[in-house]
Design goal:
heterodimer; A: two-stranded antiparallel ribbon; B: 299 residues; mainly beta; Neuraminidase; binds zinc ion
Chain lengths: 219, 299
């Protein structure tokens, strides 16, 4: 394990016991996971540069003493992102379920940045345990879109609904309506190649989704 | 839910209930120096292979051991740091360990392609392990183990494709065999990981971890559960029923600090290294994995 208080210079705070707290925390992850977090935060900075720089991140935990990826030091629970211009994205406040479309789109943008670098990103649509954070871990890399994954399917359904008004049920079942909406999204985003099998295609698609999400523009 | 295989327990009712344990003597005859278990943090590390992870603690004879996994697979690690290889745990993801009269019990899972099979192992000596119950029809793991004088209870989860908990499961040792046990009243914990359990003649207690901290529940019979207190910013990893209440050890979630406390009576830091992972508590001693080695501290 290595310790860190910032990811590539961006502080990571903890709010679960004291919201708004900016006391530096010492976190632990494996070196390989930290290296991936650096790629992730650099993606986040470049894709959201219209909001200014990323001032800080808030996490609910990385190396948590329990079974699974957290216990191995290869997972992150993301609670909140704050940019220098004052904009925020707050999974902690269940931004995925906000009544405001721009807030939901921004959440999907952050979610999409996670999906560029992590295969398993579990979000507010996935289940109630993830209603208040986005979990990202090292399982089943490389990143790609797997139809049989409820996590991937619900994300795609929510994405199509929020950017294309697709009217899909966010049920995690990849049926013909989801296929049709996903194909429309690929076409409108000029995605070539297969995001189900080719990681670079999925990562590129997630960048385009993030750009639309941060800009609050439909596709 | 399918029925598990139900082989006869290696720990017979007589040995499970019996007061005399032989594991300490068996280990002490081998390479492990089991006669000088650590009494303090400074005394606990000795020349021995480091382990990447370790789970649980169990007292055998006069010494305390944990199961650690290093480059050679699972090893039995004494509190003084010395270790010996085990057999029977190849491919195992051991997630908790406890001593019982007549031997030791470990729980976890065995990988099966993309799935994992919840599994219970038993051992008379801590070195030679045998799977006693394998819930082969299920995809999940057992993560928390409690042992009483006459029985034992293992809590776990069925897992999603993405390896997130989706449904609480329990396995009970009773009348000389392990079997799946019903669980009522823990539905609110279905999507959380069980991290610790303990029992005494009055009942059972289990701790689960959500995104904010630990959530405890109690049961008089191991079947019907009632939610009790919670602890924000704490992942409880071990519980022990003492005369002064239920002692716990664990780690902070905002960072990683070592913590202990008595359920319902606050918390305090434990003076071990910042990255130390709680393994367990026996009596007034807590055990931790720090820098690949076992350390202990009085709590
Ligand atoms: Zn998580």
């Amino acid at each position: 394990m290595i310790s860190f208080s910032t990811i590539d210079g961006t502080p990571v705070y903890y709010w679960r016991s004291n919201r708004g707290n900016t006391t530096p925390r010492t976190w632990y992850v494996t070196q390989a996971f930290y290296d991936r977090l650096v790629l992730w935060v650099r993606d986040l900075r470049s894709l959201s540069s219209g909001y200014g720089s990323v001032s800080y991140l808030v996490s609910a935990g990385f190396y948590v003493n329990k079974a699974g990826q957290h216990g191995a030091g290869t997972a992150m629970d993301l609670d909140h992102v704050r940019w220098s211009g004052g904009t925020t994205c707050s999974p902690l406040d269940q931004a995925h379920a906000s009544g405001t479309q721009s807030i939901r789109r921004r959440y999907i943008a952050v979610d999409a940045v996670c999906r560029r670098r992590f295969r398993y990103a579990l979000d507010g649509w996935y289940n109630s345990a993830h209603a208040d954070h986005i979990h990202s871990d090292f399982g089943d890399l490389p990143p790609r879109c797997v139809k049989g994954s409820s996590s991937d399917c619900k994300f795609v359904q929510a994405m199509c609904n929020n950017f294309m008004n697709s009217g899909l049920a966010v049920d995690g079942i990849w049926g013909p309506l989801t296929t049709s909406a996903f194909n429309t999204a690929k076409s409108r985003l000029a995605v070539t190649g297969d995001p189900h099998t080719t990681s670079s295609v999925w990562m590129s698609m997630m960048s385009k989704v993030a750009q639309h999400g941060f800009a609050n523009t439909a596709f | 839910m399918s029925s598990p295989q139900q082989p006869r327990s290696r720990l017979t009712r007589r040995t499970f209930v019996g007061a005399v344990t032989t594991i300490g003597a068996a280990v002490a005859t081998g390479a492990v120096t089991a006669t000088n278990a650590a009494a303090s943090t400074s005394a606990s590390a000795s020349a021995a292979a480091k382990v990447d992870t370790a789970v649980g603690v169990a007292r055998f004879g006069s010494s305390v051991y944990t199961l650690g996994r290093g480059s050679q697979g699972w090893v039995l690690v004494a509190a003084n740091g010395s270790s010996r290889p085990t057999t029977g745990l190849d491919g195992a993801d051991v997630l908790d360990l406890a001593g019982g009269p007549g031997g030791a019990i470990a729980v976890g899972a065995v990988a099966d392609g993309d799935r994992s099979i919840p599994t219970v192992w038993e051992s008379r000596d801590g070195l030679d392990w045998q799977a006693m119950t394998s819930l082969s029809g299920l995809d999940g793991h057992l993560t928390a183990l409690a042992v009483r004088e006459h029985d034992a209870l293992a809590m776990g989860s069925l897992l999603t494709l993405e390896r997130a908990p989706r449904q609480r499961i329990a396995v009970r040792y009773k009348d000389n065999r392990w079997e799946v046990s019903p669980v009522n009243g823990l539905e609110h914990t279905d999507e959380w990981t069980a991290t610790a359990a303990a029992g005494d003649p009055g009942g059972w207690i289990v701790s689960t971890v959500d995104s904010a901290g630990s959530v405890l529940a109690t049961s008089p019979d191991g079947v019907t559960w009632t939610a009790s207190s919670g602890l924000v910013d704490t992942s409880i990893r071990s519980l022990a029923v003492t005369g002064a209440g239920v002692r716990w050890v664990g780690n902070a979630m905002g960072g990683s600090g070592a913590l202990t406390g008595v359920v319902g009576a606050g918390r305090r830091p434990v003076p071990v290294a910042g990255e130390a992972r709680a393994l367990g508590v026996i009596g007034d001693q807590s055990y931790w994995l720090a820098g690949g080695r076992i350390v202990s501290a009085t709590v």
